[in-house]
Design a protein that fits this description.
alpha/beta; Rossmann fold; six-stranded antiparallel sheet; six-stranded parallel sheet; cytochrome-b5 reductase activity, acting on NADH
Amino acid sequence: MATMLRRLARAAAAPIANPHASRGQSSSTSATSPLPFAAIASISAALSSFYYFNSPNLVHLEEISEEPAQKLALNPDKWIKFKLQDKAKVSHNTQLYRFSFDPTTKLGLDVASCLVTRYPLAPDAEGKTKYVVRPYTPISDPDSKGHFDLLIKVYPEGKMSQHFASLKPGDVLEVKGPIEKLKYTPNMKKHIGMIAGGSGITPMLQIIEAILKNPDDNTKISLIYANVSPDDILLKKKLDVLEESHPNLKIFYTVDNPSSDWRGGRGYISKDMALKGLPGPNDDTLVLVCGPPGMVKHISGEKAKDWTQGELTGILKELGYTEDMVYKF
C-alpha cells in the first residue's frame, strides 16, 4: 500500500519540463459506472408497486422489500475518526494523505462536495477545548472502496496543515460531511471552464474525473491552472495524462516565477488568458473558480460574508459573464 501511494504521489508531482509538449489525440474509453444505488432502490420500489396492483395474491407483498440503504462512512452531523493509512510527499510543500474506512461502506461524497476536518487545541484557562476546523476536497474517486485521499499544502503558519504534517500512519483525523458545493450532473452544461490556483485544483479534479470516466458525458472542459512556479504545480503528471487521452479536456498552465525552459503562461491570470482559455459567456457555459482569496477576488470577486456566492466582479465580469455563469468554491 505504501508503494502504491508513493506511485500516486509521483504522478501528482510537477516536472519542470515543457508542459505543452506534443500530445496525442487518442480517446480512452472507460467502463460504464455501476447503476447508482438510488436508482436501484427506485426500480425496486417501482416493481413493488407494480406487483401490488397486478398480483391476484396480495399475501406475497410482505416478501417484497426495497433494497436496504448502504451504510455511509461519513456523517454530516457527527465527527467520525478516520485512521491515516499512509502519506507520501508530492512536492516540496505538499503531501498526499490516505485515510481508511470500512470497505463495505460507501464514503458518501458527491461531486462536487467536500468534507470538514478538525483537531483540538489545548484547553483554555476555563478548561474549554477549542478546535481548528478546515474544509478539504478529496482527490480520490468518490466511489473508491475503503479509502479517501487528501492533497494538503503545508504552510509555515497554517495550523491545520501543520497538524497534518505531524500525523503518522495509524493516527486518526476527525471528519464530518459531506458539505455539498456545486451539485454536478452529467451534461449539465456543454462547456465548463475552470480557473484554479494552487490546491484549488482539488474540486476541479473531482469534476474532471467524473466527466471523463462517464462515456455518456460529452461536456467540454477548459482549465486554466495558476501556480507560483513549475515546482508548485500539483497533480501535473496526472492532468497531462488525462489531457492526452481525452480531447474534450484542454489545460493551460501559468506560473509567477517561470524557469528558463518554461513555455507555458507567465504571471497572474490575465483577461487575455481568460479570453483565450475559457468558453465564452453563454447559457450553456459555466466557469468554476477556486484558489487563494487574492486570486478569486481578481478573477470573480470574493464570496459574500455569509459564504453565499456574492456579487460577480473582476475579470469574468469584465468579459461579460453573469452571476449564473460562474461558481466560486
